[in-house]
Amino acid sequence: MATRTLVTVSAGLSTPSSTRLLADRLTAAAARSLEERGEDVEIRTVELREVAHDIVNAMTTRVPTGELRPVLEDLSRADAVIAVTPVFNASYSGLFKSFFDVVDPEDLDGRPVLIGATGGTPRHSLVLEHALRPMFAHTRSVVAPTGVYAASEDWGAGEGGGRELSARIDRAGRQLAMLVDERVPGAGDPYEEPTPFADLMSGLGG
Prior knowledge:
Strand content: 15-25%
Number of helices: 7
Number of strands: 7
CATH superfamily: Flavodoxin domain
Number of domains: 1
CATH architecture: 3-Layer(aba) Sandwich
Largest sheet: 7 strands, mixed
């Protein structure tokens, strides 16, 4: 059985960061669900702050260099992508958007993607729906139904003690695993190379 590769993209800027923490938990949940299905899993985690200069260079030259090149190669071969950003000004961070601006959209076409975001207040939870989901819809990715937003209070404070966040993470991980299992690697668009009209008509001759 082929190994399933998960590429996790974290746009956190601090060390440690809640964005990386959420990314790691989403990755663990997805990997666990795949392993329960009998799959082997390989994980590649990318901290965007570590390749920030290369991202800027690629935006201005359109040529990926340095550590960014292997990151993009890994992304193009991934069976699924987990993408997590902090919320800046009620949207994804500039670093997060810049990275996906230099990713070839064809590399995300049909790719299962799990989206996540972190912020200081629950008020920004809709960032998943008004910013991240439309961005990945534009690249024709297959986005898991459950996205996970984690505010500061979700990490264990309050009556829920973090249980609600854990439940969302587990559900999102299961959904991503299902999408990975359903995906046929390398399957092309059946309408991309249609049968020529002349060939269709050739069988109609008397």
